[in-house]
Design brief:
There is one protein chain. By secondary structure, the protein is α+β, with helices and mostly antiparallel strands. Helix content is 33%, strand content 39%. The chain has five helices and eight strands. Strands 1-2-8-7-6-5-4-3 form an eight-stranded antiparallel sheet. Strand 7 and strand 8 form a beta hairpin. The longest helix has 25 residues. 27% of the residues are buried. The N terminus is likely disordered.
Length: 201
């Protein structure tokens, strides 16, 4: 009986991770643990990372250097609907609302080999080249963050900076390190998608 109870807890949590139900929930939990390993240690696209957790809340700061001007990076960032075209990790990035500098999107994204579904709002400040992102619906975590751009001294490169608070909505039976790996994976895939869009012109 005790083992059945434990199995239910794991299965319920994996439903939250995946945002789906089905016969592979337990496998999804183990896929996440296995996939997290590749995000340990230095990662080319991450110049610096500081992820701390207090209770349910992660405080996140990550930076990446993109070899393009801030204007080009900003132009790519203003089309988040292109994520699913520029990254295999993003299965869906559909615009639900487009009011110029305010957009709302439905996003389906793979995180540590499990699918997450969420809707987000994005507010773009052209003057400061700052994007404010906030989750509207999500199965596992609420995110409130900003992306900002800092030009290199010669203006030809850009430091892409992400600051955020991410709050767990459910108690996940996975370690903080696995959660950190999922956050890093998402950030890196965003950076790669932006670079791909810039390269495509």
């Amino acid at each position: 009986m005790k083992n059945q109870a434990r199995l239910f807890v794991v299965a319920a949590a994996v439903v939250a991770v995946a945002g789906i139900s089905g016969c592979d929930q337990i496998a999804g939990y183990f896929r996440a643990r296995s996939a997290a390993v590749k995000w340990d240690g230095p990662i080319e696209e991450i110049a610096s990372a500081d992820l701390t957790k207090d209770g349910k809340v992660f405080t996140i700061k990550m930076e990446s250097r993109i070899d393009a001007t801030p204007d080009k990076v900003w132009a790519a960032m203003k089309h988040p609907e292109m994520l699913s075209k520029n990254s295999d990790q993003y299965k869906k990035s559909d615009i639900l609302k487009d009011e110029g500098n305010h957009k709302e999107l439905e996003i389906h994204v793979m995180a540590l080999d499990n699918l997450q579904q969420l809707t987000v709002s994005m507010d773009f400040d052209d003057a400061t080249k700052t994007l404010h992102l906030k989750t509207l619906t999500s199965t596992i975590a609420d995110i409130d963050g900003t992306y900002s751009l800092t030009p290199s001294p010669d203006g030809q490169k850009t430091l892409y900076v992400y600051n955020a608070k991410q709050t767990d909505k459910v108690a996940l039976p996975i370690s903080e390190d696995v959660q950190r790996s999922a956050i890093k994976e998402s950030f890196v895939n965003q950076v790669r998608a932006i670079k791909k869009q810039i390269a495509a012109g």
